[in-house]
Amino acid sequence: MDKIRLLGRQTSGNVQKVIWMLEELGAPYVREDYGRQFGNTQTSEYLALNPNAKVPTVIDGDLTIWESNTILRYLAATRGAQLTGATPGEATEVERWMDWLLGAVNAPYLTLFKESKLAPEERTAAYGAASKEMDNLLAIAEAHMEGKEFAALGKLTIADIALAPVLKRCMGFDIERKPTPNLDRWMESLLNREGFQVALGERQSTNAAAA
Q: Which residue ranges does the record assign to the GST N-terminal domain (predicted)?
């Protein structure tokens, strides 16, 4: 297969998902810096690839894909069946957590991400509301992870790969929240994986080519 082009900045949680997936698969790829800070996601060329002007975008041969969870599903379907369910029923156990991430976690996460950059006295009421919502969401994940090593099927799947880069940030926000020993244990285990370390920029890839 052709080398995959991954367009997106290293520091994006959604780009980190894709980097980690590619590293786990050992799929040849090249990552190119794209994002608002590079001034290249509003160009006509990029908008023709991704009309949302966001990252990541993946180019695999003649195919262009955007939306990070869709990219993970595509890579699992084409290169990594072991990272998803073997049956439609098993797939629901994996993909429900990917949809939960987008449908439930994403909105309070974005609020906390933006307002955490402000001084405490500058934060709005939305920050407090998002903090309470995030505490409840992390409690859901905490209860699910009791006695489990992975989010689904007893093995690493695209559920873990989708969740971990974002939940790592959620767990690091300066908010009041209940203890999450099960989530802490899960995260610590995943942080020992080389692919996740590469995604976070803590280790050099031996799989990715220079842009």
A: 2-83
